[in-house]
Amino acid sequence: MSPPTTLRLGSLCTGYGGLDMAVQQVFGGTLAWVADNDPGAAGILAHHYPQVPNLGDITATDWTEVPPVDVVLGGYPCQPFSTAGKRKGTADARHLWPHIARALRVLRPRVAIFENVANHLRLGFDTVLCDLADLGFDAEWDVVRADQAGAPHQRRRLIILATAADTSDLGHERGRSTRGRRFGPADHGVPAADAERHVSGDHGELPAGRNALQRGLRDDAPRCGAAAAADTDRGGRGPEQHNVPEGEPDTGWGRFAPAIARWEAATGRRAPWATDAHHRLSPQFVEWMMGLPAGHVTDVPGLSRTAQLKALGNGVVPQQATHALRSLLHPAGAEERATAA
To answer: Which of 4, 71, 195, 320 makes the best surface tag, with the fewest CB within 10 Å?
Structure first.
């Protein structure tokens, strides 16, 4: 079998490419194409991947004309499922899952990987599971907080790993879990209501397959289209008053200093100022909080501050998605780490 580095990846609803970074970190591979018709996201992608074609609007794409790939991945719009929105679910005009299912039906990838807000488990996820099963995929999922990967905020994301039933592996030895949940071709034809019960956790089970990490945690509202920095002291190193423990140096971050220092160590660079000269939230700070390389979004030519924050607010922390994928691939190790914590 070919090594993971030869995998061809196709990215849907790509955004700034946070999930792409995670998938490449875990599986290797190269981007064959991306697809995002948002002007800001398209600008970011053109800046970083000028040789990679952008398919644009996936609702109008003829998938029979698209080069096949080994892995399809994407973060389809979260607004239909976010607690920050109207929660119309599958009735929302921005619900793009049917178009993604159509792409999977034609492209027949070996693996499909998706991310969305945690509330998707309660709204619309039963449809996703049934469609994946009908298409011959075994699906596993996890909900992971960003701070589980070291980030200084909690932003919770649902990560879905779906493997075609006829795919043995992707160069990774899969672990086995006795506590997680799968949904696949064996469940073909399960009524949507039964699939929803499978997801929502009847009989006292967890509401996410193989998700031992969220038990006992508060269900924070997911941040969809809003800066993740809302979880932090928005003043940052500003003039706001904050309490510093006696004997501790004043770093300017107040009670958030330990979390900031931890992420500085993990990312290898200091946190930018949280606010700009006009006392507004700094996109550079949000970019750092999202675990992106310096300037990945904020140095893209022609991208306004509003467009930068929109892109950053709709993405996933790459390290967070990497953590989730590795937990799904090697659940025993993840459960041991969770127990130790």
So the answer is: 4
